[in-house]
C-alpha cells in the first residue's frame, strides 16, 4: 500500500513535489538496505522466470546510485544475503520446484553473506551479483 505526500507552496503553484512512500519498508538507517532489498527481489524473481533480464536490471540500478566505496559494497552484499535468505520462507513448497528452489536460494544466500563478511571480491566478480562490483 502506497501513501502519497504532496508538498505545496502557495507562492509557486506550478512547483509541486509529489512523493510516493511505501510505509511498509520505510525505515531510518542505511539506504544500502533498500538497494539490497531490490537486488534480492530481482534475483529471486529471475529464478522464478528463468530469464537474464534481472542482470540488466541490477546493473542499471547499481549504475543509478552513487559509486560505493569498498566497505559499503560488502555491507550491501551482506544485506543482500540476509534478504535472500528471507525469501526461503515466501516460496511455497508445493509449487513447481518449490523445495529445490528454496534450497538453491538458501545456499546462495549463505554464500553471499559469508563471502561478503570475508570480503571476497573475486567470488562476487565471477558470480550472479557481479553488478555490485562494476
Name a few traits of the molecule.
two-stranded antiparallel sheet, globular, Kinase-like_dom_sf, 134 residues, 2 strands, mainly alpha, 5 helices
Describe this structure in words.
The chain is mainly α and 134 residues long. The protein has one domain (29-133). Helices cover 54% and strands 9% of the residues. Strands 1-2 form a two-stranded antiparallel sheet. Helix 1 crosses helix 3. The two termini are 33 Å apart. InterPro entries: Kinase-like_dom_sf.
> What is the share of helical residues?
40-55%
Ranges with pLDDT <50 over ≥5 residues?
none
Average pLDDT level? 78
Major sheet attributes = 2 strands, antiparallel
Number of strands: 2
What are the secondary-structure elements, in order, as H or E? Answer: EEHHHHH
How far apart, in Å, are the first and last alpha carbons? Answer: 33 Å
Helix segment tally: 5
- The dominant shape is globular
Strands of the widest sheet, in order across it, are 1-2
Structural class by SSE content:
mainly alpha
* Total domain modules: 1
Percent strand: 5-15%
Radius of gyration over C-alpha positions, nearest whole angstrom: 18 Å
InterPro entries: Kinase-like_dom_sf (IPR011009)
Amino acid at each position: 500500500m502506497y501513501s502519497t505526500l504532496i508538498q505545496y507552496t502557495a507562492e509557486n503553484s506550478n512547483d509541486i513535489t509529489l512523493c510516493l512512500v511505501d510505509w511498509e519498508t520505510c525505515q531510518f538507517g542505511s539506504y544500502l538496505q533498500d538497494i539490497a532489498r531490490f537486488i534480492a527481489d530481482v534475483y529471486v524473481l529471475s529464478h522464478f522466470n528463468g530469464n537474464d533480464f534481472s542482470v540488466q536490471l541490477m546493473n542499471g540500478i547499481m549504475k543509478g546510485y552513487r559509486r560505493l566505496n569498498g566497505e559499503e559494497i560488502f555491507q550491501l552484499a551482506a544485506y543482500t544475503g540476509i534478504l535472500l535468505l528471507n525469501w526461503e520462507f515466501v516460496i511455497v513448497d508445493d509449487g513447481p520446484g518449490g523445495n529445490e528452489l528454496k534450497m538453491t536460494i538458501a545456499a546462495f544466500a549463505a554464500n553471499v553473506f559469508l563471502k561478503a563478511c570475508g570480503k571476497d571480491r573475486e567470488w562476487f566478480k565471477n558470480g550472479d551479483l557481479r553488478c555490485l562490483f562494476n
